[in-house]
Amino acid sequence: MSDLRVTKLANVLVNYSLEIKPGQKFRITASPLASELTLAVYEEAIKAGAHVLIDQPLDEAQEIFYKLASDEQLDFVSPVEKIIIDTFDATLYIGASSNSCLLSGVDPQRMARNNEANIELIKTFMERSARRELHWCVTVYPNNANAQDADMSLRDYTEFVFGAGMLNEDDPTIFWKALGKRQNNLVDWLKGHQSAILKGSNIDLTLSIKERTFISADGKANFPDGEIFTGPVENSADGWVRFKYPAIYMGQEITDIELWFEDGKVVKEKASKNQELLTSNLNTDIGARYLGEWGIGTNYGITKFTKNMLFDEKIGGTIHLAVGASFPETGGKNESALHWDMLCDMAESEVTIDGDSFYKDGKTVIG
Question: Which pTM was predicted?
Answer without folding.
Answer: 0.90
